[in-house]
Amino acid sequence: MTHAEGVDEGQALARRPQSLMFSFLGIYVLGRDVAVYSGSIIDVFARLDVSEEAVRSTLSRMVKRNLLTRHRQGRKMYFGLTEHATQVLEDGRRRVWETGAVNRDWDGTWTLVGFSLPDSRRSTRHDLRSQLTWGGFGLLQNGLWVAPGIKDVESILAPVEPGGSEPSDFDLSDHVTVLQARALSPTRSADLVSKAFDTEQIAERYRAFLDRWDTPHPLPSAPDDLARQLLLHTDWLQLVRQDPHLPAEHLPRDWPAIRAEQVFRTLARTYEPGAGKLADAVLDELAR
Length: 288
Description:
By secondary structure, the chain is of the alpha+beta class. The chain has 2 domains: 1-105 and 197-288, Winged helix-like DNA-binding domain superfamily/Winged helix DNA-binding domain (Arc Repressor Mutant, subunit A, Orthogonal Bundle); 110-181, Alpha-Beta Plaits, CATH 3.30.70. 52% of the residues lie in helices and 14% in strands. The chain is built from 11 helices and 8 strands. It has helices spanning 3-14, 17-28, 38-46, 52-64, 83-99, 122-134, 153-157, 189-196, 199-213, 225-242, 256-282; strands spanning 34-37, 68-73, 76-81, 110-115, 138-141, 144-148, 176-181, 285-287. The longest helix is centred in the last third of the chain and has 27 residues, at 256-282.
């Protein structure tokens, strides 16, 4: 992937309405007991060239997924967070502001997950692989996944449910083994990183982010700082959610995540005052 292709990919990700919605909710609704009028959400998203139809469709889907609740007042419909959405957004907040993009505190521990599922459980196997990848695991060898640090594997496996045709009493825990370990000679931790993770692909994502944002005037076509803020946070959250948080000591000294994180934090502080004023003027909120 070239840098230009990476930037195009990042722009496509950033303009997905649901990804933008998570950023919007995380910044302006999380931690506040309020619901927001759909019309004002539509006004915000118009700044991002997201149509009214796309916003309404996204809100409806998120209600069906138990992420949002509806609150009617007169002829207006307001949307607030469910407990499930709060948990999802809190996880995103921690990844953005606490975990960070660079793992400088690794203690040498690895979490290993091994599983073996029959062909009749293909749907479950696919879901399990997706959840492990999302949870920061890399495939070390057939059926054996590894991630740096101590991982809460139970929470990672929780969303994995048997497919519709599979017996409801299927117990995934009977097929999964979870261990904590340290690399011992002749195995080196650096070998585990190189075998289980595509570090060049990870680095390329950060370079694409820098191509887009590490410029004197990022996104000059965006109408204002509220639009830039939402696009910036969406891009960054996509990056850190895909990043397995590999130990810094086993990555190149010029690892692009270091510079990318500096750029994100600087721009986030820069956009916050102006974006907040615009949001205050646009958003119609209902106390819950």
